[in-house]
Amino acid sequence: MIGSISGQIKAKAARLDPSNYGRSDTSAVGRWFWEIDKVLLLLLAVLIGMGLIAVAAASPAAGERYSGGSVRFSELHYFYRQIVWIGVGVPVMIAISMMSRERAKRMSLVGAAIFFTLLIFVPILGPEVNGATRWIDIGIGQLQPSEFLKPFFVVSMAWLLSLREQDKSLPIFPLSAVLVGAVAVLLMKQPDFGSTIIFASVWIAMLALAGVSLRVLGILAAAAVVGVILAYFFYPVATVRIDGFLFGEGDNFQVENAMRTLTAGGLFGMGPGAGTRKFGLPEPHTDYIFSVIGEEFGLIACLAIACLYLTIVARVLIKLLDEDNSFALLAAAGLVIEFGLQALINMMVNVQLAPSKGMTLPFISYGGSSMLALSIGMGLLLAFTRRNPYLTRSPYVVKWSGEQTA
After folding, report:
1. Which residues form a coiled coil (predicted)?
2. In terms of pLDDT, which residue wins out, 126 or 262?
């Protein structure tokens, strides 16, 4: 009896041992293990781990600000909640990364339709928080449709732009412009100027990768400049933030205090839990968590995080240099550009190089919607960058995860 149980345990352990996933293993887990970009997966794991440490450092300040004197709020309230969100988000990321490209594309098209529809209803159903209406209350929490729309929008746009290869006469570029414009209008109503910039910038980058002429890109660049100028004169949110950033007018407490907090720790920081300026920061666990990292762990830690984001973006873009599937190239490049751009904007706000945007730092900031949406996006990225390292790439036929493309 004991021998039988021992044999069953050894058999299960053998199935779970990564060394047993040989090149001939055709199971879903076996194919995933050999095809996944393990370096990219490791970089994302390191980033999530750093984020958990950062939320632990910011949690006491956030708890004091938002507890309202409630005894239910412990110093690590947001840290414990972030552990829960990571526990949900990471399995979602792994599950999506195991999908085939075709299945990931179909899921993204459906997801884009669902969250675009929810985005329409945000002004009607959503509660106002700090002057913005960006969330929908779903009972157990608040859902931010724009965060979930980002990865699905990128993949859907990649699919749309890739259709031009099949039929040059299709009005793909004008249609994509209409879709981006519709999303931008809905976001500006919330208002969410930062996300509007990300959607538009990623779209332009994908157009460049899709082969749009330099003349068209120049026109779009000029239109973007004109759009910002018009927003300054006719969009009050943009007016206030640009005036504050350029001329120091209005309430600049947030960005100025963030910069003072970030530099308070010097090169090596004041030490975990030793920061004091973070208690005066608005949103220390979300928008301004980069400043908390600077105070407690130093500018060296901030530089390390910035380099980590850069490494992730560079890793994906370099890997795509020999990608021959236009849809996969556009989808993966768009996802990593959107990821890197969001990180760049957040860090620029914290160092007073950009006006306040109300944007989280990917996988570092606290947030349920943010963590789940980013996990979906990175799961899709891992799915589109999967590659069997033991197959020789041919200019005629390349085999991907059981799929065959000419």
Report:
1. none
2. 262
